Amino acid sequence: MKDSFSRLHPIVGIVYFAAVISFSMFLMNPVCLAVSLSCAVANAVQLNGQKTVLFGLKIILPTAVLVMLINPIVNHSGVTILTYLPWDNPLTLESVVYGIASAVMLSSVVFWFSSFNKVMTADKLVYLFGKIAPALGLLLSMAFRFVPRFSAQFREVRTARKLLGREKSGFIEKINDAVRVISVMLSHSLEDSIETADSMKARGYGLKGRTAYSNYSFTKRDAIALLLICISTASLIVLRVFGTAKYRYFPSVKGELTGIDSVIFFTLYFLLMIMPFVINIWEGIRWKRLQSAI
Q: What b/e readout covers 237-259, taking b as 16+ CB neighbours within 10 angstroms?
């Protein structure tokens, strides 16, 4: 019973992730960034496991550090000059802070997409977009399953080459070996995509009047979850339109972090972001109670 949120109706999942990913990308208030990142990590750990998240951090952390370093170098806006770079461009406090905020935003979005990939499986995307936009549904399902399938196939090819004694020990040889493996993987991925598209076309996917089996039913629980998501999202949009929790980084760092309206905004934002985690915890407690009662 760990993954109860993914068992909700697909429309609930797509609406939820569309809301949280959009908010994570466009709300640059430090409190919103901290809430989004912490909730994204919590949901990712719960859905994908601690080891998977730690493996993802090996890729996310270097990228985040690179963003934090590059932004102050290329962005010289801001009124608070800390020092001057060797090429006489100013290093400003605002550009440093904005670089950190951008890195946090990027990390949170990556973690949200990892949860999205776990919850919104290919069959759910095809179910949602199969009738409205068949080509888009097929494209999305293939795109979101590309990375995990590519990673799994990459490990298989590397293992096979290692067992055959084809792996090299030198640095240049390792680079050449990696290029060969990636070339094989790209060819395999393109061939697999063509086969998938031909298979779906042969089955009549996207034809007018074609019926499709689906075991998804919209229940009362789905309606309540969708209603809560829509109310929270609409409330946050209205509050933001009226200037609540506004924050700027240029020309100087300034924004709202306190105040009744900001506290209400941050509370609603936290409740929306933590919703899958709470649902999974609550269903887990209920499941344990049912098991103890038997």
A: eebbeeebbebebeeebeebeee
**Comparison of pLDDT for 203 and 86, the residue scoring more:** 86
Question: What own/partner pairs with CB < 8 Å and gap ≥ 24 does 137-144 have?
Answer: 138/196, 138/197, 138/200, 138/205, 138/206, 142/193, 142/196, 144/116, 144/117, 144/120
pTM for the full predicted model = 0.80
Name the β-bridge partners of 84. Answer: 90
Widest pairwise Cα distance in the chain: 74
Phi, psi of 52 (to 5 degrees): -65, -40
Q: Are 177 and 166 in contact (CB under 8 A)?
A: yes
Collapsing DSSP to helix, strand or coil, 70 comes out as helix
Tokens standing for residue 246: 């506004």
The answer to whether 4 and 283 have CB atoms below 8 angstroms apart is yes
Among residues 232, 150, 231, 228, the alpha carbon closest in space to that of 193 is found at: 150
CB 286 within 8 A of CB 69: no
* Predicted pLDDT at 213: 60
